[in-house]
Write a structure and sequence with these properties.
Shape: elongated
Largest sheet: 7 strands, mixed
Number of helices: 9
Helix content: 10-25%
Order of helices and strands: EHEEHEHEEHEEEHEHEEEHEEEEHEEH
Radius of gyration: 28 Å
CATH class of the largest domain: Alpha Beta
CATH architecture of the largest domain: Alpha-Beta Complex
Number of domains: 2
CATH superfamily of the largest domain: Spore Coat Polysaccharide Biosynthesis Protein SpsA, Chain A
Oligomer: single chain
Structural class: alpha/beta
Distance between the termini: 36 Å
Strand content: 25-35%
Number of strands: 19
CATH topology of the largest domain: Spore Coat Polysaccharide Biosynthesis Protein SpsA, Chain A
């Protein structure tokens, strides 16, 4: 868990302020706890709204200071021990509202319960690889003018929506493979405001749906890489997908969707001699379908031939023959939108509207 937010200075108060001032400060902040600090910003303790209520019930003058009221043995975490697991355990075990994070006794950050348990976990150390070099033939004649990654959905190109979703998890290292109408894509993305760094991989020839990953310097990749086609939008929690990949110790994780397919006719089963065995009226079949979003270990990149065309389905088959551990992460059909062909594109536009 990285420290990315600034200190909540409105919650840090001196031990000499009055009970009245403490009540006013709590009311303005919207929290139920204050952090007591010295002039040098060193942690002295914490004061809760319960401490203040008890003092008032005992008849303490609200003009008197809080010096004798705050907890001098409050819970905190040193920055060296600060991680998602340690702080969540502390919150749950002691039922706290706030936890100060310190470095050499000085306050570096204050984490609230809501921030800890409501906030999306980040993937700040993970890089993302987006495949944006295809011709988009299923979207012609649109792609005769603009490349598929720039197809607009309610005024915003699909690739910008993909980047915005990745940015929610603080990913800051992006690799984008380009080929067809590459200069238009580069020109657009250079104008996009995004916190991370966008790196381009130029395919001199079409390299399929995974071949271009061989062009990225291995030392520039994270240990596990998020890979996405440029025509899919996924609304699931990316951190949960990543956590599943790590926990299961998978070499590759495919995000899949459970799809129902119904044949609108009677399906006939016949013998080799043409005799009807049975007929099923409008049968329905259920399948897990690969939606074009993956997490993959970096060490698999060396198995991709350098600068040679390779599609993901063939690569996955090769990995299976080599005994690599490949798993799936299923998501609901409503959490996935495919804009790779006109019929699906229209559904997505209507959905967003």
């Amino acid at each position: 868990m990285s420290i990315t937010k600034t200190l909540k200075t409105e919650l840090c108060v001196s031990p000499i302020i009055s009970i009245e001032s403490a009540i006013i400060t709590l009311k303005k902040s919207g929290y139920r706890c204050l952090v007591i600090v010295s002039k040098k910003n060193e942690l002295l303790g914490t004061l809760t709204d319960g401490d203040l209520r008890n003092a008032i019930l005992k008849g303490t003058n609200i003009k008197s200071s809080i010096r004798k009221l705050y907890n001098r043995k409050s819970k905190f975490i040193d920055i060296k021990n600060y991680n998602s697991s340690s702080i969540k355990n502390l919150f749950i075990k002691h039922k706290l509202d706030l936890v100060p994070i310190t470095e050499k006794k000085k306050i570096k950050k204050i984490v609230s319960w809501n921030e800890c348990f409501s906030k999306k976990e980040n993937l700040i150390d993970v890089c993302a690889f987006i495949l944006a070099g295809g011709k988009g033939t299923r979207l012609e004649p649109f792609t005769n003018v603009l490349p598929k990654p720039l197809i607009p959905i309610k005024g915003e190109p699909i690739i910008k929506m993909i980047l915005s979703k990745l940015e929610e998890y603080e990913i800051c290292n992006y690799w984008i493979s380009i080929n067809f109408k590459s200069e238009i894509i580069k020109s657009y993305l250079k104008s996009v405001k995004i916190k991370g760094k966008i790196n381009f991989v130029n395919e001199k020839k079409p390299l399929g749906t995974i071949g271009s990953l061989s062009l990225v310097p291995k030392k520039k990749l994270s240990d596990n890489i998020i890979i996405s086609n440029c025509d899919v939008l996924i609304q699931s929690n990316y951190f949960n997908i990543y956590k599943h990949h790590i926990k299961k110790k998978l070499d590759m994780t495919l995000v899949v969707c459970y799809k129902n397919y119904r044949i609108p006719y009677g399906s006939c089963s016949v013998t080799n001699s043409g005799i009807l065995k049975k007929i099923r009226e409008k049968p329905e079949y259920k399948h897990f379908v690969n939606i074009g979003f993956y997490i993959m270990k970096k060490n698999l990149v060396k198995l991709i031939p350098k600068n040679s065309p390779l599609d993901m389905n063939k690569f996955i088959t090769q990995l299976k023959t080599k005994g690599k551990k490949i798993g799936v992460y299923p998501i609901d059909d409503s959490s996935w939108q495919d804009v790779g062909e006109w019929s699906e594109y229209k559904k997505v536009v209507d959905l967003i509207k």
